[in-house]
Amino acid sequence: MNISIILAAGEGTRMKSKEPKVLHKICNKPLLEYVLNACKKADIDKNIVITGHGKDKVVSNFNDETIVFRDQPIYEGAPYGTGFAVIQALDEISDESIVTILCGDTPLITEKTLTKLMDYHKKGEFKGTVLTAVLEDATGYGRIIRKKSGEIERIVEQKDANEEELLVREVNSGMYCFEGKSLKDALKKIGNNNAQNEYYLTDVISIMNENGQKVGACIIDDSKEIQGVNNRVQLSQCELEMRRRINNNLMLSGVTLIDPSTTYIGENVRIGRDTVIYPGCILEGNTVIGEDCIIRSNTRIFDSKIGDGVDIESSLIESSVVEEGSHIGPYAHLRPKSHLGKHVKVGNFVEVKNATLGNDTKASHLSYVGDADVGNNVNIGCGVVFVNYNGREKFRSNIADNAFIGSNSNIVAPINVKEWGYIAAGSTITEDVGEGDLSIARARQVNKPGWVEAKGLKKHK
Ligand code: UD1
Ligand code: CA
User: Fold this and answer.
1) With a 6 A CB cut-off, is 187 part of the ligand 1 pocket?
2) CA distances (Å), 340 to each of 305, 318, 355, in order?
3) Ligand 2 midpoint to CA 63 (Å)
4) Is 365 a catalytic residue?
5) Which domain, by its residues, includes 63?
6) Which of 129, 173, 196, 459 lies at 20 to 30 Å from 4 by C-alpha?
7) Residue 453 falls inside a structural domain
8) pTM for the complete prediction?
9) Which among 101, 102, 91 is positioned nearest to 22, based on CA atoms?
10) In CATH, what number is assigned to the domain containing residue 88?
């Protein structure tokens, strides 16, 4: 069985945050989620996450049957270190399992690299394999010390390294693969006699060497993948790299991003070919966008499904569905559970909430359509309000096909307007409207000739 142990108990002091480090987000998803996803894609069946600082928050953010949480005791003077963290998972490790160890704060690691590491480990018949990287600047990392024969001998932490060792540019990524039994045996022998008084996981490598067990070092292809997040500058660097990856994938799959550096798209968003995304758009969550759409600047869409050929300008769309050929914005807001049919128009300053608008229906300007089922080919005039709330309860309205709702009308729910029902502008509708009927609900206009002059209000210059 392939299992992973993901270290996430550290405090993340340099984040200067109330939140546990692994819950900080890049491209709108927690750091830990990226690591877990890479593991799942690499066929790792069980993921043991070691929690400590902020553990309750971490646990409540991830409910998934492939994850097991193990708690590292954190108190003043408690033992500490990556080795001590892994020890918390001992009872989850069977002798035969292949154990991949990762950190919860390295979100850029890919499935491809994990698979390569595991393959290297298996093919070399190693008992332990370290994933390493060669860096221009190795500051802060543990250095890989190799024997004359080229094999890895041990890892020395920066704080414990001598001058010669500090010159080594091959570093420990903090990711490894172990055979279960050898890992467990070696962990029993680690101590904390070092510069930081920590139980170092890295000592397992020299211990295995001393036991005559074969250990390996696999050099990563792209050293960006080992980038960890220790502070918010590094958080933004990881964000940038993740965004670059997501955007490049989309562009290579046929989506035009006019300015990828200002286009923010989540990892789970799917976009069809020949769709064009203008600068400043934010597309998040489980959003699916069809082909040939135009998403113009300053649009934010999340958890929504947008059909083919939809044109959206400077609008906010939340948890909604928009079918093909519809036109939204500028400055429209679809709140959750809105469903627009085909060729619908929702124009300037229109808000839709928990409502369906049938095919070819138009609400072109300044309306609120809340809690309503609106049929096909309905015209909702300028300034129409669906009055859905009496201060205590919400009610729905039903507007059938081909109805016409004149400008500046109020539809006081619950109301049924039947097919071809016609509401005169400025009406406040409190009763149902029959099929093909005209409904006028406003005071009749009264004209009083000469009234202004008779009142002495007309000023002559
Ligand atoms: C570790 C490695 C170092 C490597 C580097 C890569 C050791 C001794 N050193 O150093 O060789 O180059 O990672 O980034 O392993 N953690 C716990 N519990 C603990 C201590 C740490 O869960 O008691 C977690 C942290 O939350 C973090 C990870 O382990 O996610 C790494 O710990 P950190 O203190 O950052 O290790 P480094 O000093 O960076
Ligand atoms: Ca670190």
Assistant:
1) no
2) 10, 13, 8
3) 26
4) yes
5) 2-226
6) 196
7) no
8) 0.91
9) 102
10) 3.90.550.10
Task: Give yes or no: residues 254 and 371 share one domain.
Answer: yes
Pairing type for strands 170-179 and 98-103 reads antiparallel
In a domain, 277, yes or no: yes
- The answer to whether the beta carbons of residues 301 and 295 sit under 8 Å apart is yes
111-123 and 31-41 helices cross at what angle (nearest 10)?
50
Question: In terms of domains, do 296 and 187 share one?
Answer: no
Using a 6 Å cutoff on CB, does residue 371 contact ligand 1? no
Same domain, 246 and 207: no
Spatial separation of the C-alpha atoms in residues 402 and 419, rounded to whole Å: 6
Pocket test for ligand 1, best of 17, 53, 103, 198 (most atoms within 8 A of CB): 103
3-state secondary structure of 391: coil
Q: How far is the CA of 185 from the centre of ligand 2 (A)?
A: 25
Packing angle between helix 180-187 and helix 203-210, nearest 10 degrees? 100
**Where a domain ends, among 226, 246, 261?**
226
| Domain-located, residue 445 | no
What does the alpha-carbon distance between residue 296 and residue 438 come to, in Å, rounded to a whole number? Answer: 39
Any domain includes 458: no
Looking up residue 370, the CATH number of its domain turns out to be 2.160.10.10
**8 alpha carbon – ligand 1 mean position (Å):** 9
Give the ligand with the smallest distance to the CA of 82.
1
Does 157 contact ligand 1 (Cβ within 6 A)? yes
